[in-house]
Write a structure and sequence with these properties.
- By secondary structure, this protein is an all-beta fold.
- The chain has one domain (6-291).
- The chain is 0% helix and 48% strand.
- The strands form five sheets. It has a 22-stranded parallel β-sheet that branches. It has a nine-stranded parallel β-sheet with strand order 4-7-9-12-15-18-21-24-27, with no helix packed on it. Strands 30-33-36 form a three-stranded parallel β-sheet, with no helix packed on it.
- β2 and β3 form a beta hairpin.
- The termini are far apart.
- This is Right handed beta helix domain-containing protein.
- InterPro entries: Pectin_lyas_fold, Pectin_lyase_fold/virulence.
- It comes from hydrocarbon metagenome.
């Protein structure tokens, strides 16, 4: 399906229930139900699909494009593409209450595979930009999202919810509540490896990894300095690695909202060749286990920190790292081990 150049202003008349009992209804402009499909525009900012005014309110939630199977056990697509266009949620012309689960410009559900989303601009969403969800019969496998920009989203720019072998490449999120969320669920210990990743991702908002058992973040550029209530890179019950990335937050915020990271519960994370700057550098609490290799950390509140109001049993192991600010803030019950770490030397002016 090819959509030519132009501005297309669409209402959202189609009601799609997300739950098997027919509840959790979202309204949409473009329903793609029980089929694989390929949708191409003429280019970003050439083909613009915009939500008409007054379509969304708290009792009438909207996802502009819904892609899924029709029934609770029906499969979704086996091959799907959306590319070369702009989706505009026209947020200023809606009743913009707090975003609700599932609201997005693109929402995918049901058991499905081989989704490709590329060269897209996703702007002014009351919810997420793109939400690859697990509503319906199962989760996404083998999805690729690349060369996509999300901007001014009330929730996440990019949400991958219980996806498997799925990847975000060369994307960016600006002025969203969260830039990227890789989300799992509480069977993270027992299910097969998730194998999800983000590479060359840029954002000025928080990144969250939640109960994902095999993730890789590489060449990430996250700077939360201008954001409100952002905790940097947040990992809960996640197992994975962060490589060749720059993670920054506001060093003037003297609590966790100024930290470059916040790692908690039973997470196990490796940072390799990363730059971390914030009030805290690596902030590991709960029962988390963090290793930092070949990293540079700048943090006046603690480059390696384990403080929390609750009891902690966390461990941080640092190897060949360079630090500046306060080196270690250790709470009782936690452990810090280091190998060949040095303080950064500043050259007098």
């Amino acid at each position: 399906m090819n959509i030519g150049k132009g501005l297309y202003v669409l209402s959202a008349p189609y009601a799609v229930p997300l739950y098997p009992n027919g509840s959790n209804i979202l309204y949409c402009c473009i329903p793609v139900i029980d089929k694989s499909m390929h949708i191409y525009g003429a280019g970003v900012d050439e083909t613009i699909i915009q939500l008409a005014p007054n379509q969304r309110n708290l009792s009438r939630l909207v996802a502009m494009m819904i892609i899924r199977g029709s029934g609770p056990l029906s499969p979704g697509y086996s091959d799907f593409t959306v590319a070369n266009l702009t989706l505009d949620g026209n947020r200023a012309q809606q009743k913009d209450d707090q975003p609700q689960d599932g609201e997005a410009l693109i929402l995918a559900g049901s058991k499905r595979s081989n989704g490709k989303y590329y060269r897209l601009k996703l702007v002014n969403s009351h919810g997420s930009g793109i939400y690859l969800g697990n509503n319906g019969s199962g989760r996404e496998r083998d999805a690729v999202v690349f060369s996509v920009v999300a901007q001014n989203c009330g929730a996440e720019g990019f949400m991958l919810d219980t996806c498997h072998n799925s990847h975000v490449l060369d994307c960016a999120a600006w002025h969203c509540r969260e830039g990227l969320c890789l989300h799992g669920n509480n069977d993270w210990k027992s299910r097969s490896k998730d194998q999800v990743s983000a590479t060359k991702f840029q954002t000025d908002s928080q990144i969250t990894v939640w109960q994902v058992n095999d993730f890789t973040l590489s060449e990430i550029n996250m700077d939360c300095t201008p954001a409100t209530d952002a905790y940097g890179l947040v990992v809960r019950d996640g197992t994975g690695q962060v490589r060749r990335s720059v993670l920054k937050n506001d060093k003037a915020k003297t609590d966790s909202t100024g930290g470059a990271t916040y790692i908690y519960e039973s997470s196990r994370v490796l940072f390799d060749d990363c730059q971390l700057e914030g009030f805290f550098g690596i902030h590991a609490v709960g029962r988390s286990h963090v290793e930092a290799k070949n990293c540079r950390l700048v943090a006046p509140g603690g480059c390696f920190c384990t403080t929390d109001p609750n009891p902690v049993q966390s461990t941080i192991i640092a190897e060949n790292c360079v630090w500046s600010g306060k080196k270690v803030v250790l709470q009782a019950g936690a452990a810090f081990l280091e190998v060949e770490c040095v303080e950064e030397q500043t050259t007098p002016a």
